[in-house]
Write a structure and sequence with these properties.
By secondary structure, this protein is an all-alpha fold.
């Protein structure tokens, strides 16, 4: 196991190098000039040239990349162009809120998806199956920003059950923190719940038709034990793959949701930085999102071994 993990970490190095190239090129090839944002009305050529020199934007693109890569190797993502705050500090201040939102959204999606998917598979063709399938199609089809707006209108504005936005730290007031996180978590996790439910259903149907399930039934094993002990564990292997991608995609998935609910996370910071042409912050956020996918894929592979003992890491 240890050798496998070390080998995977070594293989991540060239992938991470390619990721840095892609992130840097995509950010710097987008339209816009941060000097124009910083200068405001004073946009004389001399002032623009001075800002470019100060930020190092007057250097060739490959030189800028090598300087940025050298700083990354030493754990320095640079400073924000607009606030002059270290990028690691800016992201670190917003990251706990995004991780909390993503964790609650993931828990919500799994609590909905696995029971519904299991019921739909066990009662295939029944009314429960059709209702679960309809909910899954709706969850995938409706964008999360629209779900968020609907939740705000009915549960916040009309019924006044939940606040319509904002954030309260958990250590400051746990109850208010929970009230503020519920709606954005539902909006963010609904699409994931729909996808996970469909994968759970299809995987459970396939597993329930396996020979070892029929053997367990023939030996007189209780149906609930067959479903939840023998079948569900193996059926979750494809679901783990999707959940791993969802974990890796927490940051970019939260961009729209955090904007709708004014949630002070990394996703909202990314939107603000894009509007301000704050290259360094955007690069840091995209790089963090890319590395989160790499780590999530590694964790998924390790979970495979726990779910299916036949999988070997040698």
């Amino acid at each position: 196991m240890t050798t496998y993990v070390l080998r995977r970490l070594v293989l991540m190095v060239p992938v991470a190098f390619l990721v840095t190239i892609g992130v840097f090129m995509l950010i710097h090839l987008t339209p816009g000039d941060p000097a124009l944002i910083l200068l405001g009305e004073d946009r004389s050529p001399q002032a623009i040239a001075a800002i470019h020199q100060q930020l190092g934007l007057d250097k060739p693109l490959y030189v800028q990349y090598l300087i940025w890569l050298g700083h990354i190797v030493h754990g320095d993502l640079g400073r924000s162009i607009t606030t002059h705050q270290p990028v690691t500090t800016a992201i670190g201040e917003r990251l706990p809120a995004t991780l909390e939102l993503g964790a609650v959204a993931l828990i919500w999606s799994l609590l909905v998806a696995i029971p519904l998917g299991t019921i739909a598979a066990v009662r295939r063709g029944s009314l429960a199956d059709h209702l679960a399938t309809g909910l899954a199609v709706g969850g995938v089809s409706i964008p999360n920003f629209f779900i968020g707006i609907v939740l705000i209108f009915f549960l916040s504005v009309t019924l006044r059950l939940f606040p319509f936005g904002g954030y309260v730290p958990f250590n400051q007031d746990p109850f208010e923190n929970l009230r503020h996180v519920i709606l954005p978590a539902i909006a963010l996790g609904t699409a994931g719940a729909a996808i996970n439910m469909r994968f759970t259903r299809s995987s459970m149907i396939e597993v329930l038709n396996q020979d070892y399930i029929r053997t367990a039934r023939a030996k007189g094993a209780p149906w609930r034990r067959v479903v939840f002990i023998h079948a569900l564990k193996n059926a979750l292997i494809p679901v783990v793959t999707i959940v791993g991608l969802q974990i890796g995609g927490i940051i970019e998935g939260a961009v729209v949701t955090e904007t709708v609910f004014t949630w002070p996370g990394v996703g909202r910071l990314a939107v603000e930085s894009i509007f301000n042409r704050d290259y360094t912050v955007v690069q840091g956020i995209v790089l963090l999102a890319a590395f989160s996918y790499l780590i999530a894929n590694l964790l998924v592979d390790l979970v495979y071994g726990w779910l299916d003992p036949r999988i070997s890491f040698t």
